[in-house]
Amino acid sequence: MSQKKKNSNEECVKVAMRCRPISKQELIDNRQEIVKIDPERGEVIVNNPKGEGSENRNVFTFDVVINQKSTQEHVYKMTALPIVESVLEGYNGTIFAYGQTGTGKTHTMEGSNEPADNRGIIPRTFEHIYRVIEGTPSKQFLVRASFLELYNEEIRDLLAKNAKNKLQLHENPDTGVYVKDLSSFIIQNPNEMKEKLAHGRENRKVGATKMNEGSSRSHSLFMITVEMSEIRDGQQHIRVGKLNLVDLAGSERQSKTQATGERFKEAININQSLATLGNVISALVDNKPYTPYRDSKLTRLLQDSLGGNTKTVMIANIGPADYNYDETISTLRYASRAKSIKNRPKINEDPKDAMIREFQEEINRLKEELQKKMGSNIQIGPDGKIAKVVEVQKVVVVTDEQKLKELEEQIEREKNLLESTVGKKREQIERDLADSREQKEKLERQLKEKEEQVAKQAQEQEKYLQQIKEMESKIIQGNKLKETQREKEKQLIKLQIELEERKQEERRKQEELEKNNALVIGAQEQYKSLQEEIDAKTKKLNNIVERIKQARQQTNEIHEYRLREKEILLDENRSITKELKLIDLIIEHFIPQNEVKKLEQKLIFSDEDGDWNIKDDANEGHKISRPASVFGFKRPICESARMAIKFGDSNPRFRTDNILQLDLELPEIITEDFDGNVSQKVQETINIALNEDEEELQMMANEKMPIVYIKNPELISKENALNQPRVRLKSAKKTSRRPQSGLKKYQY
Ligand SMILES: Nc1ncnc2c1ncn2[C@@H]1O[C@H](COP(=O)(O)OP(=O)(O)OP(=O)(O)O)[C@@H](O)[C@H]1O
Fold it and tell me: Which residues bind ATP (predicted)?
């Protein structure tokens, strides 16, 4: 029984491993290749450059393993293709690349357009989606795309006009986690989609590290939503498939990348979010009661892809060189665990918020309105054209002109007749003629009016048609000619997917079997002689001893790796503490205590954003009421504005008109500008706060510092403290009050 069918629609995360070729630099540095790949068995063997004998071999098995020589097309077929096919049936799908920096995640996900063979999964996905749409005339499609990055735990819309704006994560009980205000574009063909990808890429954070020149310093997520509408059994059915294409920033060691400053901060954030991803994977695999999705924005964004309702493929990227052994093993262990995550994919059928339904309804409404406006004899074809109106115009013209012509002829006849008859009737005839001319002019006027009316109607009709056409063009439909080709391709893909799934299933079972075999000594086995039994059992014993050795070796390696990771985390911790200390120092020494308190009261921790936000007073009901208007002024006005008006200030803001975009009214400056020279005392305080631990700071106070600011005055004897003269910060102006400080300051 396949893994899929074990528990209704339960299926495991599919894990693929890709190893990049050894780089030129690695060849120059004479690096050894330590990775061996057997795609048929789905095996990756990594040799420990420091190990000996059988202990130096680490064997991993994955659903798909891709060697250094594989093409981008092969990678697409083996990893993304089945997921994209599922998305086009209405499933949610996620493809994400994970691995150490510089191992080829971006190459795998995006690749490059030149040469065309180098295109990665994302552009190939675009082509695949529109190829399927072209070959499916029985359905209507609406395709949308969004592109975001997650940089230093902040979400940015890479397709927005202002890509610097931070966006927030929200949760909807029906649709799950989503990014509020993320822009989404309706896309009609793969080229338009590629343009969006290129546009977003330009806005993405990329920086050089020692390990990779063009390293992605953020996680990126390209989202494609495919809405499909189909008439089945006389009823409309809508399905929506969502595809997440994720290129994660690379995991890395600060010591290797030699990151400093902003790069160092980025690296800390990247490592932290990846560590959370690891924790989520572990919690899911170990069936822990709580999964820490909320610990990072990355895991919240991927919540449905890990343990949710999505079909997921994880591509673990590794490098082949010996100096990356630790990271390679760590990536493979991470990936190996992810194989056991179970998802429950389901088709998104008839969702309430499908945009294609809204579009279709709007098109029908416009058509109905057009019909109403243009009269009952107007018929709208599938292409939205209206021939009848044009005919009416013609009829009107023809009828009126004919009438006029007949009239003129009649007049002419009468005129001739009259001219040839008695002269006394001439006057009468001329009068009649004048009347006829008047009638002709009247008719001409009527004709002109009618022409104008028809032109106006035609204009209005054109406007409606344009609107309908524009909306209809967003909904794309396939071509009958391509249908057979698509059917054949679909059959082929289905067979290929089935074959691959069977292979993967066999591999998983084989792996399980091998694990169990080594531990079970065949109690029921029959042996011909005692010697045969001894031989067989000795063999099995040796096998077990070998496995125990390997397990010990692995445990030692994991232990060492953990120690190193711990060291890195401690490093990160130290740097964050340092930064915090600096911020503390600034707050405590340079911001009045009452302002700090006010701010603290206004701060609120948002579970949704995982961040501190300033409370919106309006929502809390503490909003200060607006002062009432002063008689004679159009709006409430402050004292300084009133004074300014009094003294004839020409600034438009004081004209009491409602003018937008006014300059800010700046508060009175009560501080002095910094003149550039930091006093030795302040500099020493800052240096010590930045460099030393808290306790050391207090201890050193006795030795070096003339003035020391401490958080806990109880630590110093009161007597000692009181014997010392107090020093207070000077105010900028004599008229201003002295700044209050939350710290008690003692001098020694
Ligand atoms: N399979 C491959 N074949 C050829 N070149 C590759 C392959 N994989 C990666 N490379 C090359 O290696 C370099 C690093 O790759 P890439 O930028 O994709 O790594 P990355 O994992 O995305 O790194 P980071 O996490 O720092 O963004 C690039 O020059 C890329 O072209």
Answer: 99-106
CB-CB contact of 317 with 20 (8 Å)? yes
Top mutation candidate among 101, 106, 209 for ligand 1, by most atoms within 8 Å of CB: 106
What is the mean predicted confidence (pLDDT) over 502-523? 70
How far, in Å, is the centroid of ligand 1 from the Cα of 23? 10
Task: Give the whole-angstrom CA distance, residue 388 versus residue 323.
Answer: 78
The residue whose CA has the least distance to atom 3 of ligand 1 is 20
- By the 10 Å C-beta count (0-12 exposed, 13-18 middle, 19+ buried), 112 is classed as middle
Q: Three-class SS of residue 361? A: helix
Q: pLDDT digit string (tens) for 154-177? A: 899 999 888 778 898 888 877 788
pLDDT at site 511: 76
Q: In the structure, what pLDDT confidence band is assigned to residue 569 with cuts at 50, 70 and 90?
A: confident
316 lines ligand 1 (CB under 6 A): no
| Ligand 1 touching residue 306 (CB < 6 A) | no
**61 C-beta closer than 6 A to ligand 1:** no
> What CATH number was assigned to the domain covering residues 3-353+484-508?
3.40.850.10
pLDDT at 214 over 70: no
Over the chain, what is the mean pLDDT?
Answer: 77
| The pLDDT of residue 145 is above 60 | yes
Q: How far is the CA of 102 from the centre of ligand 1 (A)?
A: 5
Spatial separation of the C-alpha atoms in residues 75 and 110, rounded to whole Å: 12
In angstroms, the Cα distances linking 7 to 90, 286, 339, 345 are 20, 18, 16, 12
Task: State yes or no: ipTM above 0.90.
Answer: yes
Among 35, 107, 271, the mutation site with the greatest number of ligand 1 atoms within 8 A of its Cβ is: 107
Q: What is the C-alpha to C-alpha distance for residues 236 and 594, in angstroms, rounded to an integer?
A: 63
Q: Residue 97: its pLDDT value, please? A: 94
Distance 267 CA to ligand 1 centre (A): 18
Q: Which of 44, 111, 23 is nearest to 72 (CA)?
A: 111
**428-465 per-residue burial string, b: 16 or more CB within 10 A, e: under 16:** ebeeeeeebeeeeeeeeeebeebeeebeebeeebeebb
- pLDDT over 60 at 487, yes or no: yes
If phi > 0 it is left, if psi is from -120 to 50 it is alpha, else beta; for residue 59 that is beta
pLDDT tens digits for range 11-22: 899 999 999 999
Q: Is the Cβ atom of 215 under 6 angstroms away from ligand 1?
A: yes
Does the pTM of the predicted model rise above 0.80?
A: no
Write out the two tokens for 335: 């990936």
Structural domain spans, the chain: 3-353+484-508, 355-477, 593-747
Minimum-distance ligand 1 atom for the alpha carbon of 206:
27
Q: What angle do CA 248, 114, 121 make, to 5 degrees?
A: 35
At 683-724, the pLDDT tens digits run 777 777 666 555 444 444 444 443 334 444 444 444 444 444
